[in-house]
Design brief:
Strand content: 15-25%
Structural class: alpha/beta
Radius of gyration: 15 Å
CATH topology: Rossmann fold
Number of domains: 1
CATH architecture: 3-Layer(aba) Sandwich
Largest sheet: 7 strands, mixed
Mean pLDDT: 90
CATH superfamily: Vaccinia Virus protein VP39
Distance between the termini: 39 Å
Strand order of the largest sheet: 3-2-1-4-5-7-6
Shape: globular
Number of strands: 7
Number of helices: 6
CATH class: Alpha Beta
C-alpha cells in the first residue's frame, strides 16, 4: 500500500508525517532490524509510518493518560493498512521507562514533549537517552508555528512547542536539528 492510500485510510496529514519521518530515517540510517521505541502512541500514526518502512515498533503511553490525544484506537488504524503485526503496545511512563539501558537503537517522540508536564521533561529526556544508550538516538518532533496555527483551529488549548535542548541533562549529548514540513526535528545522541 502506498502512502497516498495510507493517508486516505488514516489521516490527510499522513504524507507530511511521513515526509518528516523520512528526513530522520535518512539521517539515522538505521538497519531494518533496529530496536525502535515510539513514545506517545496516540492514534498510532507515527508507529504506523515506522512499520511501513519495515521496522518492528514498540509504542506506548501511560495507562493513566486521559488527554485529548491519548488512548486512541491505534490498533484498528494499523490493521486498516495491514501493519498491525509490526507494532506492539506497552503502557509505560516516559519519565521512568521499564527498559534496560541501551535497549533501543532509536527512541521517537512525535509531537509529544510539549504535552508532557514541564516539571518532568528533563527526566523524560534523561530516560530516553538512557534507553538509547551510547549507540542509539533520541528524536523529538515538535510542531512548527504553521502547524500550531492549524492545530489551534480545532484545539485552541493546544500547548506551544517545546525545545528539548532546554531539558538536556548535564552530560555530553550531541544535537542535530532538521526542519520538516510540519515539525522541527531534534536528534540527540549520547557522547561516546
Amino acid at each position: 500500500m502506498d502512502r497516498e492510500e495510507m493517508g486516505a485510510l488514516l489521516s490527510p496529514m499522513f504524507g507530511k508525517i511521513a515526509h518528516d519521518g523520512d528526513l530522520v530515517l535518512k539521517a539515522l540510517n538505521l538497519p531494518k532490524d533496529a530496536a525502535i521505541l515510539d513514545v506517545g502512541t496516540g492514534a498510532g500514526t507515527f508507529a504506523i509510518f515506522l512499520a511501513s518502512e519495515g521496522f518492528n515498533v514498540l509504542t506506548g503511553e501511560p495507562e493513566t493518560d486521559t488527554s485529548h490525544y491519548a488512548g486512541k484506537d491505534w490498533a484498528s488504524n494499523a490493521e486498516k493498512v495491514g501493519l498491525r503485526d509490526k507494532i506492539r503496545f506497552q503502557a509505560f511512563d516516559a519519565g521512568a521507562m521499564p527498559f534496560a539501558d541501551g535497549a533501543y537503537d532509536a527512541v521517537f517522540f512525535f509531537g509529544v514533549l510539549h504535552h508532557i508536564d514541564e516539571a518532568i521533561r528533563a527526566d523524560v529526556l534523561k530516560e530516553a537517552l538512557r534507553v538509547a544508550g551510547n549507540k542509539g538516538s533520541v528524536v523529538f518532533f515538535e510542531p512548527r508555528q504553521e502547524t500550531l496555527e492549524k492545530l489551534w483551529t480545532t484545539d485552541p488549548d493546544h500547548p506551544l512547542a517545546a525545545n528539548p535542548a532546554d531539558y538536556l541533562p548535564g552530560k555530553d549529548v550531541s544535537e542535530q536539528k532538521l526542519e520538516g514540513q510540519m515539525m522541527n526535528i531534534y536528534i540527540y545522541r549520547n557522547a561516546a
